[in-house]
Amino acid sequence: MAAPLLQAQIDINAPVSRVWELVSDLGNMPRWSPQCRLMKPLGGMRQGARTVNVNRRGMLFWPTTSRITELVPEKKLAFRVNENGTVWSYELQPTEAGTRLVETRHAENGVKPISNTLVNSFMGGVSNFEQELIEGMNSSLARIKAAAEN
C-alpha cells in the first residue's frame, strides 16, 4: 500500500542557480531540516552516490543511508532512503520572481513495515510523524528561502 505523498512548496525571490547551489550541497541539510543532523555524500555529488545520514527527534537519534536517484542540475535532486524505501526530492521551477521550490516525500511502494513499526512504537504513530514531516518540510523550505534571498 502506497503511503501518502507528503509535499510542501515555496516561492523564492532568487534565481534558480542560487537556490540549486543551496539545495544541492547536501552538507547543508542539517542547516535546513529540523530532523537531519548529518547528510554526507560518499564519493561526491553524482547520481548513484550513497549518503550517510543522522537524524534526530528529541532525545532519539537514528542513522540512515540513502542513494541519490536523480541529479539534474538546477531542476531536481532526489534520494531514496534505504531503511524505509521513501524517496525525498527537491524540484526547482523558474518563476517570474525567481524560483518555486517543491519538496516531496514519495513512498510509491509504501514505507517498509519495520519503519512503520518503529514509528508507531517510538514516535507517536505514523499519522503524527507524517504531520511532523510536513511541518519540517515547510520549515526547511522557509530556511532555504531566507538563505537564498539574503
Automatic annotation (TrEMBL):
Gene3D superfamilies to which the protein is assigned, alphabetical: 3.30.530.20
Record-linked CDD domains: SRPBCC
SUPFAM superfamilies: Bet v1-like
Span of the signal peptide: none
InterPro entries: Polyketide_cyclase/dehydratase (IPR019587), START-like_dom_sf (IPR023393)
Pfam families in alphabetical order: Polyketide_cyc2
Protein name: Polyketide cyclase
Species for this entry: Mycolicibacterium poriferae
